[in-house]
Amino acid sequence: MSEAISVTRALFDDVMVPNYNPANFIPVKGEGSRVWDQEGREYVDFAGGIAVNCLGHCHPAMVNALTEQGQKLWHLSNVLTNEPAIRLAKKLTDATFAERVYFANSGAEANEAALKLARRWALEVHGEEKQQIIAFQKGFHGRTFFTVTVGGQAAYSDGFGPKPGAVEHVEYNDLASLEAIMSDKTCAVMMEPMQGEGGVIPGDESFLKGVRELCNKHNALLIFDEVQTGFGRTGSLYAYQQCGVTPDILTSAKALGGGFPIGAMLTTAEIAAHLKPGTHGSTYGGNPLACAVSEAVMDVVNTPEVLDGVKRREQMFRDAVQAINEKYDVFTEVRGQGLLLGAALNDKFKGKAREFLLAAAEHGLMVLIAGADVVRFTPSLVIPETDIAEGMQRFEKAVAQVVSSHG
């Protein structure tokens, strides 16, 4: 019998590759929007696993789906199909513009598939001259070499040798900068309808519509990365449904599985036809466990009760941050939509977002940052209103602590 391993934060440093620097506490249990660490200390969760835990921790619908499917089928490979994958794809196509779905394991993989499909479509329909992919500065699309190159943050893509070519970046919310480099050689424009990691920056409606028109003009595909904005996060199933712009390809992950790894690329039948058998694949993509859990999540999230509740909770967050700010004067604005919100720090606290995150943890609250100047909130979509109130009381203590340390 193997001996028990004493799991400590220090052991992490001894056994893990050092590309992460996690908090000093180790969570061991979660229920709803509360989490407990090894010491039994309780936290209110405003981070949601970075916009993933859309139904909180251990939601009964998810636990039941996982338990039931876990006693039936776990993995088959894509030599065979399975019922949960087909049912989930049917529900996704019924609820969106899409007619076809490709399943993967993550947002990066969904985006990789979208980019490869766009290139293949352009090659087969228009010829090899049409290969330019345009994306936006401060955008984020994942960490594979292709997706990190398309993402607009050099800090993530530099230092790994030659990058995939014919990828260019322009300013977000600046239609003129896009128009200046678009041509009939443009294969696709990839964008988040609201930039998440880049600082919670919503796309202006006129900008998003202008991008769609430029894509139409140059026969380019519009790819919406809705990995963070999607699956109820903004108060509709996908953000595109609120901005009057329909993409050609949409990618989804994070909240799609509510905490179980799954990604999806959604598109039309005409475009999907270019990923013929053998052109792309995934060993685990569309596995029965992930799809069964995701289907259960969708059945809860894609309801008026939950989606309307997101908008109500958004207002609670905004009101609470405003009340805190009236006392302490640290934020310039709260950006975002639904429960993807960013409190932007004013000049006095520029670059200090991580201090607020660390102080919040000290007071029993989990928050996120989006760059060095924005404190980000991405809680469960069904977070109880009492937990919002309690979490904001803890956040106020954290703000007061940071302010007094710079007094």
UniProtKB/TrEMBL annotation:
InterPro entries: Ac/SucOrn_transaminase_bac, AcOrn/SuccOrn_fam, Aminotrans_3, Aminotrans_3_PPA_site, Class-III_PLP-dep_AT, PyrdxlP-dep_Trfase, PyrdxlP-dep_Trfase_major, PyrdxlP-dep_Trfase_small. May also have succinyldiaminopimelate aminotransferase activity, thus carrying out the corresponding step in lysine biosynthesis. GO terms for molecular function: identical protein binding; N2-acetyl-L-ornithine:2-oxoglutarate 5-aminotransferase activity; pyridoxal phosphate binding. It is found in: Cytoplasm. Its EC number is 2.6.1.11. CDD domains: OAT_like. One of its GO terms (cellular component) is cytoplasm. It is an enzyme of class 2 (transferase). The gene is argD. Signal peptide: none annotated. N(2)-acetyl-L-ornithine binds at residues 143, 282. Binds 1 pyridoxal phosphate per subunit. It catalyses: N(2)-acetyl-L-ornithine + 2-oxoglutarate = N-acetyl-L-glutamate 5-semialdehyde + L-glutamate. The modification N6-(pyridoxal phosphate)lysine is found at residue 254. GO terms for biological process: L-arginine biosynthetic process. PANTHER family: AMINOTRANSFERASE CLASS III, SUCCINYLORNITHINE TRANSAMINASE. This is Acetylornithine aminotransferase. NCBIfam families: arg_catab_astC, argD, PRK01278.1, PRK05093.1, PRK12381.1. Its cofactor is pyridoxal 5'-phosphate.
